[in-house]
Amino acid sequence: MSKEVYEYYCIIEEPVVDIEALRVKVMKNGIPNNNKLRAKIWKLLLRYYRAEQKTWVSSEETYLMIYRKQKEMYYEEKKKEGEEKQDEKEMKNKKLARIIDKDLARTNDGENKEEYNNALRRVLNILSNMQGGIPYVQGLNIIANVFYHVFLDASDAATKEFAEVSTLFCMYNLLTNIRDWFDSTKDMTNTGIRAAMGRVMYCVKQKNQRLANTINTLIDPSYYLFRWLTLLGASELPMDVTIKMWDKMFCEIRGMRYLFAFLASMILEIECLIGNFELTLNLLQHYPIKDFDRIDLTARVILRDVMRVNPARIDLNEKPVGSIHPLPSSISSLHDSP
Predict the structure, then answer these.
(1) Pfam families in the record, alphabetically (predicted)?
(2) For the whole prediction, is pTM greater than 0.90?
(3) Who is most buried in 87, 113, 149, 165, counting CB within 10 A?
(4) What is the per-residue pLDDT for 337?
(5) Do residues 84 and 37 share a domain?
(6) What are the pLDDT digits (tens) for 207-221?
(7) What is the per-residue pLDDT across 28-39, written as a single tens digit (0 to 9) for each?
(8) Alpha-carbon torsion angle 199, 203, 208, 212, nearest 10
(9) Residue 87 CB: number of other CB atoms within 10 A?
(10) How many CB atoms are located within 10 Å of the residue 180 CB?
């Protein structure tokens, strides 16, 4: 065990984990390339686990019970697909399943693709249909893929099902905070996707006004920032870079400040490559820089220099970016005080 990994285990194996100390360490140093460790840290940062370590086993068992119940309902719905008479909900679910299947066909090209995608299919269908869930939109398969990749790598044959469980509920906890980004009726509100795009461009403007003006003149931010934000960078960056970025993003998911800073730094890093409309759009839709440390360094400068300058424009008080909807009662009980 490396010194870095050992230092993290010293924090997370305390009877009551100091979440603030964990956040500070992750934001400063990142997480070592160890997905067993990363999986535990993600669960703590995303409130899948409570700080009290003694509750983790019972929480896992409860999550598994809820997941299996939801999975039974999912398979019952699939059985009805072959029946002649289907109500409106069943027809809607069938259409949703086709959309998810189409997206998953492009998600994973590795070994055991069918088994892997079947797991993602269950997670995405359940997430869309469970009480308080997140309606499926194109691209959520990419977010699910990153979660499942990490949790599956942290599992063994005996705990494989927990990779699906962890993916579902960590994804739920994360997306609940940015729910309004996926709701077109909230586009023009201060919690909607346009406000989020505005925060990214505000960061760019504060560091390089000329670049911000040039890009905004050439291209509407919605042509690229919508995808960058709603897919949390996962569509533009390699898996390893996405995971490193998420490590730090999860340190503060209510304000999403690190995500805004990171995406702004992605724009700042390609200043010298900006050209005409076609060239610039191609750059932004096929991002060329894959060096996490380079982008992260600029992002941390933005966090320091920009986001502390104007707290009225950037959420420094951890005000939720999206509407906070209550968890289903069976899930929310896991987060209540003992």
Answers:
(1) RabGAP-TBC
(2) no
(3) 165
(4) 36
(5) no
(6) 999 999 999 999 998
(7) 999 999 999 999
(8) -20
(9) 9
(10) 21
